[in-house]
Design goal:
With 310 residues, this protein is mainly alpha-helical. It is built from 12 helices and no strands. Helix 9 packs antiparallel against helix 10. The chain is globular and about 60 Å long. The N and C termini lie far apart (59 Å).
């Protein structure tokens, strides 16, 4: 019966996702429970830090992974593995091109970011320190979170919902194990570290499994990744140099709020230009694609986009 088969197919695809969502919620409950053991402030600090991590993650990873799913599904359905691999690679490269420096900036400017966005009223200097500390560990895992989001969509496109779920459940156990093991030594920071470490392991598992199915990473891609990491390393150095002066400039009471926001945006622009400049010198092709996208909203950047292509 076609109706019975249809219901069975829907159930087969939805069941793993429901299990995965349940595992995610259980993981969240476990992390929150462990955070409560270190104090009520720890729970709030982790929540604030998580929200800050989700800002770049939502803009980059969620948007990219949502867009590529229909194309990947169609390519897998017609059996075009080469095009599937190429499409996924074309999505992952710009995702990493933006996620890696975003991770660096979030880490380097964690104190100014929290001060500028939250420190007012009852949100004190102590609150800023409590939020910025776990944000350092969470920021280190931003690229891994982005990879997991996109790679999970690739498995969905292959009608394989069980692999991401099984990996997610295993990683949930690893996350809790790391958190419990390090909780007495590091306090609530152990939970932020555990989240980033376990997510990185999850990304590696998904990459290995997917690589066996559609082919491994080419030498060209490895060289590209080295150039992105080199550009990010220079950006990290500049960010480290600017971090302390920017923290001082954005401390509440050290100037008008508007002035502090302008200074913060200027510093953010400086590190962004350093990264883009390094990308141009190292001939990273995603730079021109990124500038083309920006030029659609900011027409004066069209000449710069054309210049970056050469």
């Amino acid at each position: 019966d076609p109706r019975t088969r249809g219901v069975y197919e829907v159930g087969r695809l939805l069941a793993p996702r429901l299990i995965g969502q349940a595992a995610f919620q259980l993981n969240f409950i476990a992390v929150t429970n462990l955070a409560w053991r270190t104090g009520e402030q720890s729970v709030s600090a982790l929540n604030y830090a998580w929200q800050l991590l989700m800002l770049p993650h939502g803009v980059l990873a969620l948007s990219v992974s949502t867009v590529i799913l229909p194309t990947l599904s169609r390519l897998w359905q017609v059996g075009d593995t080469a095009a599937f691999r190429a499409t996924l690679g074309n999505a992952l490269r710009p995702l990493l091109f933006l996620s890696v420096p975003a991770s660096v900036i979030l880490f380097a400017f964690r104190l100014p970011i929290v001060q500028t966005l939250f420190q007012t009223g009852a949100f004190s200097t102590e609150s800023t320190t409590l939020v910025a500390a776990p944000l350092a560990f969470l920021a280190a895992g931003l690229a891994s979170y982005a990879l997991v989001e996109a790679l999970t969509r690739a498995f969905y496109a292959m009608h394989d919902t069980w692999t991401p779920v099984i990996a997610g459940i295993a990683i949930m156990a690893l996350n809790i194990l790391i958190g419990v093991t390090l909780l007495d030594r590091m306090g609530y920071l152990a939970l932020a570290l555990a989240l980033s470490l376990s997510t990185t392991v999850e990304a590696m598992i998904l990459i290995v499994v997917l690589g066996r199915r559609i082919g491994g990473v080419s030498t060209k891609t490895r060289g590209w990744l080295l150039r992105v990491l080199a550009s990010s390393a220079v950006t990290a150095f500049v960010g480290a140099v600017l971090a302390d002066p920017l923290t001082e400039a954005t401390t509440p009471g050290n100037g008008p709020k508007l002035q502090q926001i302008v200074v913060f945006l200027f510093a953010l622009g400086v590190v962004a230009m350093v990264y883009l400049g390094c990308a141009w010198m190292l001939r990273i092709p995603e730079l021109s694609d990124f500038l083309v996208l920006l030029s659609r909203r900011i027409p004066p950047l069209r000449r710069l986009a054309l210049f970056a292509r050469h």
